[in-house]
Amino acid sequence: PIEACVMMLLTTGMREEGLFRLAAGASVLKKLKYCLDSGSNILDEFSIDPHAVAGALKCYLRELPEPLMTSELYDDWLKAASSKEPEIRLECLKDVCNLLPKDNYNNLRYLIRFLAKLAEQQEVNKMSPSNIAIVLGPNLLWPQENERSQAQLDIASVSSIQVVGVVEPLIQNAEILFPGDIDFNVSSLFTPPLDIKNQKIPTTEEAAA
């Protein structure tokens, strides 16, 4: 589901204002979630509604039994992000990234590199790394709780605010923390836009040139 949503958003959603922040229609979102859960690749009809796609991706991440960034490392993430020295904070975040299980690391790398690409269009879509972290962070990391409902964090809670402080620098430093070229069309099941497939994400300097 992560790849399917990302591929659709790369096609139609990168310049959409308020992506991940604005709510989608409930009926469209429900239908899209059903298609994703059933493994369908016939998703073209949903590409015209990037807010539904973004909403489905948020739901998928939030409904995982274990957060993508893992509850086990929750305290490690918060501690790493708490350093006031940018270089030390970056090194600590990289250390925690390397503690993730392989599949979690690969999926987080994929997602964060996509979110960094989304943030490159922030003048148009109004989704800066901070704004993205506010709306997506609580869906990526939450503490262990006895009750599942407690794990679905309130965006205004202290815990969520701390999580934003973790996710924002991940997006800001995506190429440093998750280096290397990236092909978003990992499975080759989707038809990507011509400028995305096998394209190296530009550095900040290249993007500004």
UniProtKB/TrEMBL annotation:
Is Phosphoprotein set as a keyword in this record?
Answer: yes
PROSITE patterns (UniProt xref): RHOGAP (PS50238)
One GO cellular component this record assigns the protein to is: cytosol
Q: Matching Pfam families, A to Z?
A: RhoGAP
Q: Tell me the GO BP annotations in alphabetical order.
A: regulation of actin cytoskeleton organization; regulation of Rac protein signal transduction; signal transduction
UniProt keywords, alphabetically: GTPase activation, Phosphoprotein
What GO terms are given for molecular function?
A: GTPase activator activity
Q: Which domain of life is it from?
A: Eukaryota
Q: Which residues form the Rho-GAP domain?
A: 1-178
Give the Gene3D superfamilies listed for this entry.
Rho GTPase activation protein
Q: What is this protein called?
A: Rho-GAP domain-containing protein
Lineage in the entry? Eukaryota, Metazoa, Chordata, Craniata, Vertebrata
